[in-house]
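User: Fold this; tokens only.

Assistant: Input:
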Amino acid sequence: MYSRYAPQGVAFPYAVVSIPFGLSDWMFVERFDDVDVQFNLFSQNTSETEIGTMLTNLRARYDDTTLTVSGYTFLYCQHERSLTLSDPELNIRQYSVFYNILLQV
């Protein structure tokens, strides 16, 4: 898994994780950090099996998991949505998987 970008020419399959944006919310007297995390999964296999297995493994690891983040009280990690994209010319399949993480400061 790579952070933000994969190196050019990296072998398939691979995954990239990024935090496209994060928001700090105030609720009553408590402060929260509401963070969206995006995982992009890439495969060049013509079958859905490889990228489907990647998605299954990712969801098994992160769906409703408990995270440890220094300086924060963890509240939840929830799967929000998944999108599929493909480039038939390059035979690249991509799943974009979005999670929402809520932390209390």
